[in-house]
Structure formats: C-alpha cells, structure tokens
Amino acid sequence: MTDPIIVVKDLVKRYGSFTAVDHVSFEVERGSIFGFLGPNGAGKSSTIHALCTISGYASGVLTIDGIDVGRDKDGARSRIGVVFQDCTLDPKMTVDENLHMHGCFYGMPKALIRERSRFVLELVDMTDWRKAMAGSLSGGMKRRVEIARSLMHMPQVLFLDEPTTGLDPRTRAEMWAYIDKLRRERGITVFLTTHYMDEAEICNRIAIIDKGKIVALDSPSSLKKRYAADKATIASRDPEALEKLLERHGMSYASAGADGDYLIQVEDQASLMELISEHRTSIGRMEVSRGTLNDVYLEITGKDIRG
Ligand SMILES: Nc1ncnc2c1ncn2[C@@H]1O[C@H](COP(=O)(O)OP(=O)(O)OP(=O)(O)O)[C@@H](O)[C@H]1O
Predict the structure, then answer these.
(1) How far is the CA of 18 from the centre of ligand 1 (A)?
(2) Within this chain, do residues 163 and 284 fall inside the same structural domain, yes or no?
(3) N or C terminus of the chain: which is more exposed, having fewer CB within 10 Å?
C-alpha cells in the first residue's frame, strides 16, 4: 500500500481468558472508504474501540497517521472523528452548543470554535438549524449534526459505526452524499461498519472479520470475483443435452425447480457464451444474475449480511 493512514499489526484483545480479537492485521489507504464487516460478536467494536483509544488491548501495534495509538492517545485522538450508532448529542442543548462543547473538549480557542462550527454545519447543510434544540431534530438531522461535530477538530479519519441504521432510504442516500463529499473535498479517510450491502459496495476495500480473525480483505469487485460467481438459470427443452454440455465445459450446476431449470455457476463468461451458442435452439428461457457482496459474505461467514 502506498500511503496507509491506519496500520493495525497483530492486534489482540481479550476479555478475561476469551480472545475477542485474535492477531488481526490490516492497513487502510489514506483518502479511501474502508468497510469493516462481520457478524454480531465478530470483534468489530473491540477493534474499533482499540483504534479510537476507547479501550485498551493486550498486544499489537496500531498507528493512525503515523502516531502510535498505544503511546500517544491524545495525538491519535486529534486525528480521528467518531460517530457511533447511539446518538450522543445533548438533547437539551442547541446544535451550536453541542458543537461548542466538543470544541472545548479539544481545547480549541473560542474564535476557532465559532469559525469551525459555521464551516462544518455548512458541510452537512445544517446551518439554518444551529439554534434548534438537538432533541427536536429528526434522526437524519441528528446524524448530520453528529458528523459535523466529529469534524470540528478537522480529523484525518472518520470512524462511522453503522452511520445510517434506522434512517429512511432517502435520508440514507443524503447521508452518503455528505460522506462522499467529505472524502472527495477534504480527503478524509472513512472507516465504516455497516449491515447494508449497498454501503459496503461503495467501499474501496472491505475487511470481513469473523470470530476475531480477518477472513477476507479486498476490493468489493475482487471479493465478488473470488467468492461469488455469477449465476445463470437456463430452462432447457432438452435437459439431457444441456447436462452433457455443462459437463463438457466443466461447469457446476444444479437442477432447480420442476420446470427443467438449471442453476449454473458462471466461473468464466466465455464458457457460458459457448454453451448458450451450442444449446440455443433448446433454450426456453435464460437469466444471468451477478454475484453480490451478500453472496460473498454468506460464503465466507455462513450468515446473511443483514444478520
Ligand atoms: N466487555 C466485555 N466483556 C466480555 N466479553 C466481551 C465484552 N465486550 C465484548 N465481548 C465479547 O467479545 C466478542 C467480540 O465483541 P464485539 O463487540 O467486538 O463484536 P462486534 O463484532 O462489534 O459485534 P456487534 O456487531 O454485535 O456489535 C463477543 O463475543 C462479545 O461477547
């Protein structure tokens, strides 16, 4: 990797004698969107909490923007912004006051707090709401304010733990527009956990963690190529001939349904094209479906991405 902003080497996290994170290593490229996926209890939060200095770890080396998280917690904190699932805005304070408090935590001078508040609220289109009570905002607006707040100290990396869970589809799409804008315009690296397949699809790279170990790490397209073959369904008027052809081309298949449908794994498109051409007079119906990240996830973890 040319310019990793996050480096995790051999991270081990234990709760008593139970190893929740078991020698996990990965890197995140600066300016990218990195997806961290895994079933419940896989070790995602334990890893993220260690990276965000929220909790300690037994062994390993974690660096963020070159700073050793174990040695310089304040340095690491100054580089990261964090938005977790549960809203942590103070509902009885205005949007401005919530941002102000965050600036104070980070020891920012008052003038800078005012200037940054304006800037970050504009980034998420919430300027008109700055005097509103945080508790009176909709779920999507609260999330936008939380993102704005996490950016007050201009972090290099934004950790988003299921940032759009519980939001309606339109608000989710809007949130993603803001997140992508941040990445493009501010060069912020996004470290994301999600249970939504379309959000995982946006990531430059994805790590899948299961039972405390990284079990896959690659781009969505490479993962699909490796773990989720495209599938073709062919209804044939001459099943015997089709089976012979499938065997000749070395293609895996299963007979699906009562209508003479065959479900075929497409490892390589050229073989499928040849088979179609050879069998075309007997094909009643045909459908090709692309492998999805959910297929990848299912293949690797045995579970559905939505749990
Ligand atoms: N404080 C704790 N004490 C004991 N065991 C814990 C503690 N926190 C987490 N664990 C265990 O460590 C394992 C990893 O938990 P972790 O919360 O990191 O998983 P996760 O992938 O974030 O899961 P989820 O998606 O459900 O949040 C789980 O088996 C969990 O039960």
Answers:
(1) 10
(2) no
(3) C
CA of 38 to the centre of ligand 1 (A): 12
Cβ–ligand 1 contact at 103 (below 6 Å): no
Of 181, 200, 221, which residue is a domain's last? 221
Residues spanned by the domain of 197: 4-221
Decide if pLDDT at 181 tops 90: no
Residues 104 and 44 in one domain: yes
DSSP-derived letter for residue 147 is H
Residues 18 and 145 placed together within one structural domain of the fold: yes
Strand 213-218 versus strand 205-210 pairing type: antiparallel
Question: In which band, very low, low, confident or very high, does the pLDDT at 307 lie, cut at 50, 70 and 90?
Answer: low
Q: How far is CA 171 from CA 88, 120, 141, 163, 217, in A?
A: 19, 18, 9, 11, 29
Answer yes or no: do 156 and 245 share one domain.
no
Cβ(15) – ligand 1 distance below 6 Å: yes
- The pLDDT tens digits of the residues spanning 243-298 come to 999 999 999 999 876 667 899 988 888 889 999 999 999 998 899 988 888 889 88
Neighbours of 89 (CB within 10 A): 21
Q: Is 107 left (phi over 0), alpha (psi -120 to 50) or beta?
A: left
For the CA of 21, the nearest atom of ligand 1:
14
For the stretch 203-217, pLDDT in tens is 999 999 999 999 999
- 140 or 94, greater pLDDT: 94
Q: Rounded to an integer, what distance in angstroms lies between the CA atom of residue 229 and that of residue 242?
A: 20
In a domain, 307, yes or no: no
- What percentage of the chain reaches a pLDDT higher than 70? 98
Say whether both 80 and 179 belong to one domain: yes
